[in-house]
Amino acid sequence: MSSTKRQQTMAKRNRERAVEEKRTLKRLKKQAAKAEKAAGGPMADGPMADGPRADGPMADEPMAAEPTEAEPNVE
Q1: pTM, 2 dp
Q2: Is the torsion defined by CA of 15, 16, 19, 22 positive or negative?
Q3: In the chain, how many domains are there?
Q4: Is residue 69 part of a domain?
Q5: What phi, psi does 16 have (nearest 5°)?
Q6: Region 53-75: what's the mean pLDDT?
């Protein structure tokens, strides 16, 4: 029997690193969701809660239908 260890390949190291990163991200995501639910955030009622989503494509844009106080109504 051989007493020497076989050298670990770079491919195996990369696979193991990818798996560990994926598990870490999943754990962090679960912890964030749990903390948000405990704080009573928008995820408290589930992913299909009523109202606009904060991460939507138009979340940062103001609604064009309503004039703001800074803009005078020109008609």
Answers
A1: 0.45
A2: negative
A3: 1
A4: no
A5: -65, -40
A6: 57
From CA 37, how far away is CA 46, in angstroms rounded? Answer: 9
Domain residue limits at 19: 10-41
Residue 26 in any domain: the answer is yes
Q: Per-residue confidence at 37, pLDDT binned at 50, 70, 90?
A: very high
Q: Provide CB contacts within 8 A for 33, sequence distance 6+.
A: 43
What's the DSSP call for residue 45? G
d(CA 18, CA 7): 19
Q: Residue 36 and residue 43: Cα distance in Å, rounded?
A: 7
Q: Say if 50 falls within a structural domain.
A: no
Q: Which residue has the tokens 């928008």?
A: 42
Q: How far apart are CA 48 and CA 46, in angstroms?
A: 6
